[in-house]
Design brief:
Elements (H helix, E strand, L loop, with lengths): L4 H11 L7 E6 L4 E6 L2 E6 L4 E5 L2 E3 L2 H33 L4 H18 L3 H12 L1
Antiparallel strand pairs: 1-2, 2-3, 3-4, 4-5
Helix pairs in contact: 2-3
């Protein structure tokens, strides 16, 4: 999640594909949202990353707003996980010399975390090969 609306504006610009297609981005301090047009739709995003589609002056939860919210939330989650992985790897480096067993246990936890986040390409290739038979 973001701390303020200006940070949210930057986060949205960095996260959305084809961000150059965004139009009329505005910060609404009273409502605590960022509004913009993208892909011929108008959206409002709160600091919590809850996303709504705007039709006139009304807010709706639509398929498009749900997908956009998922994209924003997933990127935020990935950033947090990567930050924790980096911290853990630094801790592993510190323990490697004096406590190699503890360092290896931490390394295994990093490996498990990354395996959950990154699809197993080997399993996907095996499934594809079976399907082609």
């Amino acid at each position: 999640m973001t701390q303020d609306l200006e940070e949210l504006v930057q986060y949205i610009r960095q996260t959305l594909p084809q961000s150059k297609q965004m139009r009329h981005m505005a910060v609404d301090d009273a409502a605590k949202v960022v509004t913009f047009e993208w892909q011929s739709r108008r959206f409002a995003v709160q600091l919590s990353l809850r996303t709504f589609e705007m039709k006139g002056t009304k807010l709706f939860i639509t398929g498009a707003s749900g997908l956009l919210q998922d994209l924003l939330a997933r990127k935020a989650s990935n950033r947090e996980v990567i930050g924790e992985v980096v911290k853990t790897i630094q801790e592993i480096e510190g323990r490697l010399r004096d406590h190699p067993d503890q360092a290896m246990e931490l390394l295994q936890s990093v490996k498990r975390t990354l395996e959950k986040r990154i699809p197993n390409r080997t399993a996907a290739k095996k499934t594809e090969a079976v399907a082609q038979r």
